[in-house]
Amino acid sequence: MSANSDGTATSALAETDSVRTLPLAGLSALAMAGFIAITTETMPAGLLVQIGSGLSVSVSGAGQLVTAYALGSVVGAVPLIALTRGLRRRAVLVSATVGFGVFNLVTALSSNLVLTLGVRFLAGMAAGVVWGLLAGYARRMAPPRLQGRAVAVASVGQPIALAIGVPMGAWFGTLADWRVVFAVMSVAALLLVVWILTVMPDFPGQLADRQLSVRKVLVLPGVRPILFVAFLWIFAHNIVYTYLAAFLDRIGFGDRLGIVLFVFGLFAFVGIGVVGVFVDRAGGDSFAVIALSVAVWGVAFGGAPTLLQTALADTTGDAVDTAQSVFVTIFNAAIAAGGVVGGLILADRGAGALPLVSLVLIVVGVLVVSIRQFGHSL
């Protein structure tokens, strides 16, 4: 570690191949930031009854805490990353993490729905910054030959949070008031700030003459196909995932939703591990069948973000943070679209049609990837 003239610690070696191993302490801090971001987003889903009672609103009204957070990520990711891309990376990450601490604390103390929705929106904006930073920061901390693996390690907080975020919130809600859950998340975020300042190397922001606008990033060769596939992937995923309970009810396994979600989260974690190893080198009437299908689905879902973000980073180079901010916007827009379209399909055609529509979207995505790959091989 060395120091700049302003006294900021940096790691020049982290940007060269002289780093022989992954900086696991720093990458783990990034993973924890992702875990807090996803847990903060999803945890209210397991506390809707308690939150609704505490804020004197309906369960559906309490559910808008999740919506407000997602909207914050959609609206905030691109402009905030654009505004901060010239700033030192660690300072930006610390600011977003402090935001989680403050906004979760206000949520814990608030008794007003409008105020609560407002700070949830701001928390979503903080998440947009974290997700916009994560892949680029992880890659700069690792040697070129291990950059894909570094992204995989830094991304591991997401599937863990997806697997335990909602159940953890629901479980804590049985032990204490829902406000305590948000207070705990606030403390966790502030502890993470200390962790980041202790172990994370710092990097300069992007010089003004090297900054590309979002429009210029989008016209870089290969960027739009990657983003299109990313949209199809999360769109197809969310059409089924959002209404998984209804689908399981239809096939007679509605009472096993918890098991299915656990299997999905566990194998999403496995998916990140599998992709992390290789990325730098290149329904029925049986519950066992359902569990196996969900396991495969989880592996694919866990590995896909690392593959897509690595492809995007390789394609955009120095503009990676801007590209990742667009990825975050696409990701959250697809989540919203999946919820809306899946709801319409459920109401019109029933739960059985959900995986069929998702299959069509997946086939289109595979065709785009195949065509792109075939074009490169010519």
Write the topology of this structure.
Blueprint: E1 2-3, E2 9-10, H1 24-42, H2 48-55, H3 59-84, H4 89-109, H5 113-140, H6 147-154, H7 157-175, H8 178-199, H9 214-218, H10 223-241, H11 244-250, H12 257-278, H13 287-316, H14 320-349, H15 354-377
Antiparallel strand pairs: 1-2
Précis, in short:
The protein is mainly α.
Characterise the protein shown here.
With 378 residues, the protein is mainly α. The chain has 15 helices and two strands. It has helices at residues 24-42, 48-55, 59-84, 89-109, 113-140, 147-154, 157-175, 178-199, 214-218, 223-241, 244-250, 257-278, 287-316, 320-349, 354-377; strands spanning 2-3, 9-10. The protein has a two-stranded antiparallel ribbon. Strand 1 and strand 2 (9-10) form a beta hairpin. Helix 3 (59-84) runs antiparallel to helix 14 (320-349) and helix 4 runs antiparallel to helix 5. The radius of gyration is 20 Å and the shape is globular. Mean pLDDT is 78; it is low at 1-19.
